[in-house]
Each structure stands twice: as C-alpha cells, then as structure tokens.
Predict the 3D structure of the following.
Amino acid sequence: MDDLKIDKTAFSVADLHDPGDEKAYWLSKTPQERLLAMQIMREILYGRDAATGRLERILEIAER
C-alpha cells in the first residue's frame, strides 16, 4: 500500500440532491475489497502508524 497516490488532477462537481451511485458501487465489491478500501482511507486520514498501531492496555489495581 506504500505505492498509493492521490490523483490531484481529478475533479468533479455534483449536486448534493442528486442520488449517488456510491451504494451500488460498494455493494458490487466483495467484503475483502471493502475492508481494504476502508484500511486505505484510515491510513490516508490518520497516517500509517496510527492506523496500524494498537491501543495501549493499562492494568490498574484498585483497593476497596
């Protein structure tokens, strides 16, 4: 996924009230393709380290 680039020359204008075809597009994809697309979008938004990192687990012992 390191070779992915955004095409900054692509541009389109659409009316927000027009029904989109995004739902049909994503329903035509396999679950694996949808998950891969979601992971790519997460990496673009948050960066690779944040998207692949894990949450820190903290154990705390409380006295009663």
Observations:
- Residues 26-52 form one domain.
